[in-house]
Amino acid sequence: MALRRREFLKIMGGATAAIAFPSVMIQGCKRALKSALERTPVIWIQAQSCSGCSVSLLNKQNPNIVSVITEYISLNFHQTIMGGQGDVAIRVLDEAVKKNWQGYVLIVEGSIPTKSDEYCTIGELNGRMIGAREWIEKLAKNAKAIVTVGTCAAYGGIPAANDRVTGNNPTGARPVSEIVKDKTIVNIPGCPPHPDWIIGTLLHLLFKDRILKFDDYGRPLLYYGKTVHEKCEHLTEYKMGIFAEHWGDPGCLYQLGCLGMDSGCDIPVRKWLEGMNSCTGCGAGCIGCTESDFPDYGKRGIFKHVTASLGEIKNLEHAKSRETVLKLRNGGIING
Amino acid sequence: MARVIIDPITRIEGHLSIEIDVEGGRVVDAKCRGDMFRGYEKILRGRNPVDANQITQRICGVCPVSHGIASSKCLESAFKITPNKNGRILRNLALAANYLHSHLIHFYHLAALDFVDITAVLKYEGWDSGLNNLKEWAKSELQGKKDRPDAITSVGPFLPRYGGIDGKGFYIKDVNINLDAIAGYVKALDIRTKAHKMVALLGGRVPHLVGLVPGGMTQVPTRKIVREYRSILKDVEKFINDVYIGHVIAVAKAFPDYFKIGKFNNFMSYGLFDLDEKNEKFMLQRGVYINGAVEKLDTSLIREQVAYSRYGSGSNLHPLKGETDPNPHKPGAYTWLKAPRYRGLGMEVGALARIFISYLAKN
User: Fold this and answer.
1) Going by C-beta distance under 8 Å and a sequence separation of 6 or more, which residues neighbour residue B92?
2) B46: burial class by Cβ within 10 Å (0-12, 13-18, 19+)?
3) Residue B17 DSSP SS3
4) What does A76-92 look like in DSSP terms, one character per residue?
5) How many whole angstroms separate alpha carbon A258 and alpha carbon A229?
6) Any alpha helices (H) in chain B, and if so which ranges?
């Protein structure tokens, strides 16, 4: 089961590993890996999700997603990519529960509605539609590990945000940790999470000779241990006191409501899609999607309140939006 | 009467199931059930309007750019601002790149497994390492699975073998077309990532762009970015022209009967790729096609029907007035999807509708 350090680095998708590991050699090591490991079965369930985490996962390069699925894990259920439909698909979950299968990894994407199971159902058995909550409760019992992918499954995320008029969430959406209370849950938050985080954490869990350290929110410190601010492209500008006042300006994005100081995430150095761009790099700023408070942040919301002048606000067409903008402008807390 | 239920429908974004009643060999009733509700209409209430640009993108992880730009335009109309020229062009480019991605993922990774017999890979004799990898994998999925400890079930959920009613199977029968399409499936994974790289260049990341804001996009279009976008586009273009189109034609030829199934009556297009900042001129035209004639689109004629949807609030309302109050136990209701109508008619939207209307409007 043990992996050599170089193979391990390769799998973790780190930049150094990619350089130290020409692609010709990868082929040989894959064989070694294959014989060294029995593929661990994985069941991936999507509850109240947008499939964004799965789409992000498909962007995994080096190793790419095909080799992850065919060589490292045995993916038995995943609604967005599996070939089977209806009975063929749902039989996997049913058999896993009925035959008391052990030793699989349960991955959950999306939050779970608690007001009624009808808000999210997956499959039908004997004329009864089965709620996502029921599947997750049953499958969690025998799972070797439970991993949440995405902020929705980890902390509730956007589906669990409140309707601010009534103060309630429409579906009672909750994170996995409130459905499965007696087991340790590994969280890989992010909206969506970087594919390196998903595959990296997963393989960490499978190869037990390396122990991951987690923070208070159940996130691997390896990826979430430092804040965006600490690794930010604009850190020098921040130190020099150059702040952007409008989108598109050069400088630190703090004044525009960047949440980088409060969010644990390594995107400014890891970057999206192999160095293409990052949230801070594109000038928008961090929206804090890896944090448990996303997207509410108390009353703050994602962005700093509208920066329009009073005159501009008065010109707004609808009385209601005028009121809302004024309220937000006057009563908001910016960056705590 | 026999009832056929397919639940879940996989390889789509979202939760869907189909219920069909068959009597004497004919379908007498069919229900498309949307099985999931999150309540975005409610969650958006009382928030900073600018947050809507981020929140609405989470409706769908495959097409976040469309939702994000729709939200940007909505905010612009509320704030009475117009986007700047750079913003408009960058949005068009980001949206276009995401369309490339969506078409690839739809054809190869979502729809193809309904046409292509993936077990054909077992007959592969060549030297492509990717295909040989897949062959080994398929072998172990199908043959060795029962004895292996990682097998949860004896069915191959990733390699379904639907026999079909006549036992002949629904898949393409030509082994070479199948093998070619499987190779395309693997290659398209890379190409769709490339299309996503183009989106990320402009929007910061993808899925769920952070760079979309009312008024334009936050990314400053430097020469480096434009050059990179263009160079990746060339790769994607090459794949589409050399491989993708060929596969579409091969699949179309393998199922000639499908051209006789179904019909189209009504199309609707909101217009795509803005040519001005006022939301009036588009590269693909805005309009509706009803009963053989193209008309101007009047959005005030759109209504949302919820008679059979699980919402307690009123039916047949304009989206501006709709309430979206969920009621999971409403009698007679079977779905979370609403039924939108234009002048009381169901309309086909999407790529085909846009091209069709554009084509007719220009003639």
Assistant:
1) B273, B274, B283
2) middle
3) strand
4) EEETTT-S--HHHHHHH
5) 9
6) 40-43, 52-55, 64-79, 85-104, 129-142, 175-203, 223-239, 245-254, 351-362
User: Which is nearest to B133 in space by CA: A33, A14, A61?
Assistant: A33
Query: For residue A316, what pLDDT band results from cuts at 50, 70 and 90?
Result: low
Burial B178-189 (b: 16+ CB within 10 A, else e): bbbbbbbbbbbb
Is the confidence at residue B22, as pLDDT, over 70?
Answer: yes
DSSP conformational letter for B135: H
Please tell me the distance from the alpha carbon of residue A209 to that of residue B90, in angstroms, as a whole number: 47
Q: Which amino acid is at B353?
A: A
Q: Confirm if A264 and A290 have CB atoms less than 8 A apart.
A: yes
Higher pLDDT, A3 or A174: A174
The closest alpha carbon to B160, from B219, B108, B116, B104, belongs to B116
Q: Helix count (H) and strand count (E) of chain A? A: 15, 9
Nearest chain A residue to B41 by CA distance is A163
Residue A275 corresponds to which tokens in the numbers above? 């160095």
- B49 in Cβ contact with A325 (< 8 Å): yes
Chain A 272-301, CB below 8 Å of chain B: which residues?
Answer: 272-274, 276-279, 281-287, 289, 295, 301
Q: Could you read off the pLDDT of B317-340 as tens digits, one per residue?
A: 999 998 899 999 999 999 999 999
Quick: pLDDT tens for A120-166: 999 999 889 999 999 999 999 999 999 999 999 999 999 999 999 99
Max alpha carbon distance in chain B (Å)?
66
Which residue from A48, A41, A39 is spatially nearest to A77, judged by alpha carbons? A41
Among the listed residues B67, B55, B98, B232, the one whose alpha carbon sits nearest the alpha carbon of residue A275: B232
A16: three-class secondary structure by DSSP: helix
Q: How far apart are CA B44 and CA B260, in angstroms?
A: 43
**Length of chain A (residues):** 336
B215 touches B76 (CB < 8 A): yes
- Say if B118 is an interface residue toward chain A (CB within 8 Å): yes
Query: Rounded to an integer, what distance in angstroms lies between the CA atom of residue A276 and that of residue A270?
Result: 10
- Kindly tell me the sign of the dihedral angle through the C-alpha atoms of A234, A237, A241, A246: negative
Which tens digit of pLDDT belongs to each residue from B243-280?
999 999 999 999 998 889 888 889 999 999 999 999 99
Nearest to A104 by CA among A141, A137, A58, A71: A141
Kindly determine whether residue B152 and residue A96, on different chains, have CB atoms separated by under 8 Å.
yes
Q: Which of B55, B202, B213 sits opposite A247 (nearest CB)?
A: B213
Residue A16 pLDDT > 50: no
Please name the residues between 180 and 239 in chain B that touch chain A, using a CB distance below 8 Å. 186, 189-190, 192-193, 196-197, 200-208, 210-211, 213, 215-216, 218-220, 228
Chain B CB contacts of A35 below 8 Å: none
Please state, rounded to an integer, the average pLDDT across all residues of chain A: 82
DSSP letter assigned to residue B9: -
Q: Which residues pair with A128 in a beta bridge?
A: A125
pLDDT digits (tens, 9 = 90+) for A39-73: 788 999 999 999 999 999 999 988 888 888 888 88
- pLDDT band, very low/low/confident/very high, at A336 (cuts 50, 70, 90): very low
* Nearest-neighbour CA in chain A from B55: distance (Å): 7
> Rounded to an integer, what distance in angstroms lies between the CA atom of residue A242 and that of residue A255?
10
* Cα A174 versus chain centre, distance: 15
DSSP structure class, residue A163:
B
DSSP assignments along B104-128, one per residue: HIIIIIIIGGGTS-GGGGGG--S--
